[in-house]
């Protein structure tokens, strides 16, 4: 394999700027430190300084040389010019640990090479295939489906963008890359027999909800229709600049014809898929809609038949939150009026049913903010299981998206899901990726499957960039649309590391999640359990649109030696009155942190027999070096009735209105 020929390009924008090298030459250059490309060095430097999606980082990446490991091309490096296969099938594996993934691939006899991606968040790998299998782009797509299913069975999820034969790979640098020039070709026929060519995601099929039980007159099968849709959507996504609009129109025309003749395709969902594919490849929203509308008109004009009831793009827009009506043909607000829909909307409206404890209601977006190690996942699962056991909700309606966990944690929670009947999804398992969530929700909405569905996102940062206002705002719009169609969303997120001046925690990221949620809580630790071995946390409501509780506390075993299931079974709810006392104690103690050096000094001074305000302040300043203002604030903060958190002393009036301070006798604050 070392002498097979592959193609390189100066950058991704110029398919005519190409050169051909042997595989050995290319891999040697990617592996050796002496041959690191200067542009690649700049990209890695920008990547370490800025985010992956930053404009500067993206621009530097697009300037990198790239490689088509598939083989050689006539003239420009485009799919239609494919000349000869190298016998290498390139796969992208994103958002994984590169070291363990390379080790896993190295155990396969068919892996030629595996190296870390340019962003160091994934792996690029070459799988050996029989070069006679691939003579064109369509051949490549057939092999792709087979390899995708095979690797999925090994818990390796490959990027769906690998479907076109020219699949370009940016150069990288990995001195520890795996190489095996003696790799064996896959047995395509055996794999094809093992993994059928049906759509791997039947739940996302655009099949009609109520297909006829009779065989369609055209002789089409559901598997054929699903595959046709998949191929055309792939063709749209891989279209080259200058041909994108034409490809979208052509594919839409083809699929509308298939939908009409087969009777097996849901037109509403098909159009949603087309819109998402069109916008994903960079076309403006109005251009996407125009191309699809043109295909519809041409199709139905050519057959002299009217459109089906779901054949207008404007009807889909109401359930596509990322697409806003910009077409100038929208001249009246009447077309958006909801009048006449009240009965339908009322049927979808959900009663106030608690989904989790008494903190999250069905039909709302609820956010839980907490620091790492507080127990937000543990408590969320405990409340979820309790609700399912009590019959308040059905496990089959719940989808817990566990996207911030290790393998052991995923298995533990999967066993809980299987026991209690709810669904568990994890990043890079069964073809799911957290980055797909917005599009999945849009399809769920478009297919009218949102009503009654409960999703729990753990944690939210895996689904959107919470530090990017545009990204988080768009994601919350999608969640709002999901909820407005009858869904329920519960999101887990983090707080800032540093507390506010008043000692309270604040949510991390932009304000969009808190602003757009119906309800949100901040979870704080009252007792870390280091002495008591039992951790106590309190949920404090900061926003609500329903009869949720203001405060609730939970306790559970805190020892690191206790396994997750034991901790789960140890969770106990604490009464409202005690929760209120704990909150008071927590807030008071958090506020006292401002005076952590001052209040012990003042207590010592008062205990020595000094009671007048002026003398206390003078001695405290001498001992601590703190300002007069800070000492006065501490005196005021810690003054009050006994047996109240942080009230260490009381104030009395002395001769000539002198302010006198005395320590409380046997002071012991509530909570200690």
Structure description:
The protein is α+β, with helices and mostly antiparallel strands. It folds into 4 domains: about 5-195, no CATH class; about 200-325, no CATH class; about 345-520, Rossmann fold; about 595-665, Nucleotidyltransferase, domain 5, CATH 3.30.420. Helix content is about 40%, strand content about 15%. It contains 22 helices and 23 strands. Strands 15-14-16-17-13-18-19-20-21 form a 9-stranded mixed beta sheet, sandwiched between helices. Strand 7 (about 110-115) and strand 8 form a beta hairpin. Helix 2 (about 40-50) packs antiparallel against helix 3 (about 55-60), helix 7 runs parallel beside helix 9 (about 265-280) and helix 13 crosses helix 18 (about 565-570).
End-to-end separation: 71 Å
- The number of strands is 23
Q: Classify the helix fraction into a percent range.
A: 25-40%
What structural category do the secondary elements indicate? alpha+beta
Largest sheet: 9 strands, mixed
Q: Report the total helices.
A: 22
- Indicate the overall shape: elongated
CA-based gyration radius: 31 Å
Low-confidence stretches: 196-218, 303-331, 667-672
Estimate nothing, just give the exact number of structural domains: 4
Mean pLDDT across all residues, rounded? 82
The proportion of strand residues reads 15-25%
Strand order in space, largest sheet: 15-14-16-17-13-18-19-20-21
Outline the secondary-structure elements.
Layout: E1 5-9, E2 18-22, H1 23-31, H2 38-49, H3 55-62, E3 66-68, E4 71-73, E5 82-85, E6 88-94, H4 98-106, E7 111-116, E8 122-128, H5 137-152, E9 169-170, E10 178-179, H6 188-194, H7 222-237, H8 244-262, H9 267-280, H10 285-303, H11 313-317, H12 342-348, E11 354-356, E12 360-361, E13 365-370, H13 376-390, E14 398-402, H14 407-420, E15 423-426, H15 437-446, E16 454-458, H16 469-484, E17 488-494, H17 512-516, E18 519-527, E19 534-543, E20 551-557, H18 564-570, E21 572-574, H19 576-592, H20 598-607, H21 613-624, H22 628-637, E22 649-653, E23 659-663
Helix pairs in contact: 2-3, 7-8, 7-9, 8-9, 8-10, 9-10, 9-15, 13-18, 15-16, 20-21
């Amino acid at each position: 394999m070392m002498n097979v020929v592959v193609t390189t390009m100066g950058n991704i924008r110029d398919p005519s700027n190409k050169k051909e090298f042997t595989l050995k030459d290319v891999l040697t250059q990617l592996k050796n430190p002496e041959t690191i490309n200067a542009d690649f060095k700049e990209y890695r430097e920008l990547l370490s300084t800025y985010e992956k999606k930053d404009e500067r980082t993206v621009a530097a990446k697009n300037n990198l040389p790239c490689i088509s490991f598939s083989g050689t091309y006539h003239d420009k490096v485009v799919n239609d010019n494919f000349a000869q296969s190298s016998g290498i099938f390139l796969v992208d594996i994103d958002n994984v640990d590169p070291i363990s993934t390379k080790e896993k691939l190295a155990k396969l006899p068919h892996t030629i090479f595996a190296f870390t991606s340019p962003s160091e968040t994934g792996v690029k790998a070459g799988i050996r295939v029989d070069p006679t299998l691939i003579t064109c782009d369509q051949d490549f797509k057939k092999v792709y489906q087979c390899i995708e299913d095979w690797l999925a069975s090994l818990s390796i999820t490959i990027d769906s963008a690998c479907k076109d034969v020219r699949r370009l790979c940016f150069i990288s640098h990995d001195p520890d890359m795996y190489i095996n020039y003696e790799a064996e070709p896959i047995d395509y026929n055996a794999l094809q027999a093992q993994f059928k060519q049906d759509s791997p995601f039947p739940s996302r099929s655009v099949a009609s909800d109520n297909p006829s039980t009779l065989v369609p007159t055209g002789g089409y099968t559901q598997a054929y229709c699903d595959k046709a849709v998949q191929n055309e959507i792939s063709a749209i996504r891989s279209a080259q600049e200058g041909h994108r609009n034409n490809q979208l129109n052509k594919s839409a025309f083809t699929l509308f014809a298939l939908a009409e003749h087969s009777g097996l395709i849901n037109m509403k969902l098909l159009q949603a898929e087309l819109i998402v594919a069109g916008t994903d490849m960079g076309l403006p929203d109005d251009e996407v809609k125009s191309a699809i509308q043109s295909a519809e008109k041409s199709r139905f004009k050519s057959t002299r038949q009217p459109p089906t009831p779901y054949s207008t793009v404007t009807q889909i827009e109401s359930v596509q939150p990322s697409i806003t009506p910009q077409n100038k043909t929208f001249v009246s607000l009447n077309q958006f009026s909801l009048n006449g829909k009240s009965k339908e909307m009322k049927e979808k409206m959900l009663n106030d049913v608690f989904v989790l404890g008494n903190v999250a209601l069905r039909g709302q977006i609820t956010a839980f903010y907490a620091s790492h190690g507080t127990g937000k996942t543990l408590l969320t699962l405990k409340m979820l299981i309790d609700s399912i056991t009590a019959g308040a909700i059905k496990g089959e309606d719940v989808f817990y998206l566990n996207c911030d966990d290790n393998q052991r944690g995923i298995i533990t929670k999967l066993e809980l899901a299987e026991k209690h009947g709810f669904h568990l999804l994890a990043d890079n398992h069964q073809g799911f990726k957290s980055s797909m969530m917005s599009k999945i929700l849009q399809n769920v909405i478009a297919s009218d499957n949102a009503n009654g569905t409960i999703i729990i996102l753990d944690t939210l940062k895996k689904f959107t960039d919470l530090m990017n206002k545009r990204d988080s705002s768009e994601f919350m719009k999608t969640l709002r649309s999901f909820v407005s169609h009858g869904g329920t969303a519960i999101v887990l997120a983090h707080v800032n590391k540093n507390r506010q001046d008043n000692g309270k925690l604040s949510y991390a990221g932009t304000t969009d999640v808190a602003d757009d949620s119906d309800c949100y809580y901040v979870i704080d630790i009252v007792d870390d359990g280091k002495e008591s071995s039992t951790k106590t946390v309190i949920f404090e409501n900061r926003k609500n649109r329903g009869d949720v509780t203001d405060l609730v506390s939970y306790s559970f075993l805190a020892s690191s030696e206790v396994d997750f299931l034991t901790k789960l079974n140890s969770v106990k709810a604490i009464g409202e009155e005690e929760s209120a006392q704990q909150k008071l104690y927590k807030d008071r103690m958090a506020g006292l942190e401002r005076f952590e050096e001052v209040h012990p000094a003042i207590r010592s001074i008062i205990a020595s027999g000094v009671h007048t305000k002026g003398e206390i302040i003078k001695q405290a300043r001498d001992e601590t070096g703190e300002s007069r203002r800070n000492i006065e604030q501490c005196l005021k903060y810690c003054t009050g009735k006994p047996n109240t958190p942080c009230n260490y002393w009381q104030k009395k009036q002395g001769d000539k209105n002198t302010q006198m301070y005395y320590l409380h006798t046997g002071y012991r604050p509530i909570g200690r």
